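User: My collaborator and I are trying to settle a disagreement about how two of our proteins should look. Neither of us wants to argue from intuition anymore, so we agreed to look at predicted structures for both before our next call. Could you fold the first one, then the second, and keep them clearly separated?

Assistant: That sounds like a sensible way to settle it. I'll keep them separate. The first protein:
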Amino acid sequence: MSDEFDNPHGEISTELSSGFRAAVTHTLIDLGYSVATWEVDGVNVRAPNKEKGDEQYIGLSNLYRRAKGADKAEWPAMIREFLEHLTGVLSGPKIPDDLSTVASQLRPRLGRPFSREGKTYPWGIPLPGTGLEINIVIDYPHTMAYVTEAMLKKTGSTGEDLLDLALANLKENTPPDFLDKVSEELDIFVGHTADGYDAARALLVDELLPDSPAGFWVVIPSRDELAVWPVSMAALSKIHVIKMFAQDNFREHAYPVTDDVFWVWRGTWYPFGIQVDDKNLTVSPPDEFIVALKELEGDDGDRG
């Protein structure tokens, strides 16, 4: 590989290496596409004969993980195979001007925020307490397309209104036994359908599990995995388990989201700090968690 291959002009705020970006750019050009803007873990591309601003996002985090484990000589073929398949899919479904015509196909997505530098970017709102963002997508049999601000303007709807519909659609398409208890010893529930929306089902946790007075610990290490643990006094002594679960799956699985642990109580999300090393376990809960524990202790006392 030449130095030019490893060092594309300019530095971009992204987790993807310069050499990988250069290889992707070269392949996209060969396929007739052009790069519009880079995201943290993907790229916005413009298809052949499309006007400026008519762009489509391609996620690259899974491909990048594979590339890092391969020799650089294998990158061109690996990237071409991936992009040929994906660009073929992207040229398939026609994105409608009126989103009401695909109302039943709308779904929420939960992940890391997109940049807002390009002219065309997905609509999204922050999920407070998480550093994550909720987007809306149009679900197709073999792919999906993000709902953009431009689409919303053409449709005449607000993102918030469509998000309510997307959540209702997701709930309807969630199996009753989606969250499955993984062991007799721990009340940890894991959901995994691999339909691309398992992380987003964290937004339905209060409806998917019986009421838990002190809330739930929630982790979404990847797009296709969700783990939920109802808070209890017994679980506190083993709290490191869910952090290790998040770390391991975030590191190993495709489409990673975050290895953070969150606490969801009364519909509000909070960061729940847990640090684990060979010798120490450090827990940094929010102040509200202490209030919830006191209420939980009171409930246990009432039952005793």
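The second protein, kept apart from the first:
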Amino acid sequence: MHIQLSDHFTYQKLLRFTFPSIMMMIFTSIYGVVDGFFVSNFVGKTPFAALNFIFPFIMLLSAVGFMFGAGGSALVAKNMGEGKMELANRRFSFLVYFTIASGIVIAVLGILFVRPVAAWLGAEGELLEYCVLYGRILLAAMPAFMLQTEFQTFFVTAEKPELGFKITVAAGIANMVLDWLLVAVFPFGLAGAAWATALSQVVGGILPLIYFARPNDSLLHLGPASFDGFALWRTCTNGVSELVSNISMSLVGLLFNVQLMAYAGENGVAAYGVIMYIDFIFLAAFIGYAMGTAPVISYHFGAENHTELKSLLRKSLIILLISSVGMFVFAEAAARPLALIFASYDPTLLDITVHGFRIYSISFLFVGFTIFGSSFFTALNNGLVSAIISFVRTMIFEVVLVLALPVLWDIDGIWWAVVIARGLSILLTFGFILGNRKKYQY
């Protein structure tokens, strides 16, 4: 059964429509973890630490792609809800072309500055050289990676979430196979892992470009487009929360690495890397659900269907509550088996990772609501509220707590900083949801 944005969504239909986006994000996070698995087990602890040390910098630079995807799809879906299909396609085309140009500029700047940034953050010697090696290879594929993140959202807007999932699976399989070949079979080490990821990002970015450029049966098509300053402005203001969220998470990740180097050395950085890989997988489910519901919310907002908006919000909160509790229980039970995948070769690293993750996993009770809340306001074309939720959670709560709590609780303070920050953020999120009920009539 084909599900349209204009439909009334029951629980079953909502879960069916968002399932491809959820699986797409989970699969994306899993194949991103593959690099860490092969590097940790076949190359060594220092290259593994370098990968995790420089990765937040790469994600920081890629944040523009998330902004164009989330903000652009909110605008395009709203235009579709208003019945302006030709305008929606022109704006979609313009945003894709602008993303390609931006990606090239960002890639060049990143390649030039990756060494001084890594050194400034505290990497030196062998760790620094590994950071530069891995970073420069991934940065070369930055335009394709930005397209990949952008198209993940636009596939949902085009009512083709299943196709988006299939392309993500293709990119993921390419990454896994290449990781196995270039790291486990042929001894290319960290460079092999970097090339595996870069080439898989090319697959994930170029295949959708070809699909939308050719005649297709989706709602969106690439075609002629001129510069649209209004669309760019609305995209940036709508998607600023995703930009802020990704920049903030990257900066906080860099800060965590600095603090962990000070309190626990390379073992601390490596343990954080393992926890982040697992965290990515769990968060991917929430991000995928938010990504899958956002175009539906934008469409009904544009169509002024307030009854459906209210229904979508209520159903989403119930789904998030059930999944958050289930995720927490599973994470506590599976902490050691999950850590063994990456740290079985080092008992000290394994113990630090398991202990840290059991504290960290408490945050799964809260984080899904803040992710959805931020996405919800982006979908309503209210980028300011969305950005405030993302910014306060990371750049205020997490930064303050990760600097303050280790003074009291040593390395445990770093793990508790995330839990408390995400707990405070849920209060902020619900405050905005309740405070804007009359404005949006949901």
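Some points you might bring to the call about the second protein. Residues 11-440 form one domain. The mean pLDDT is 89.
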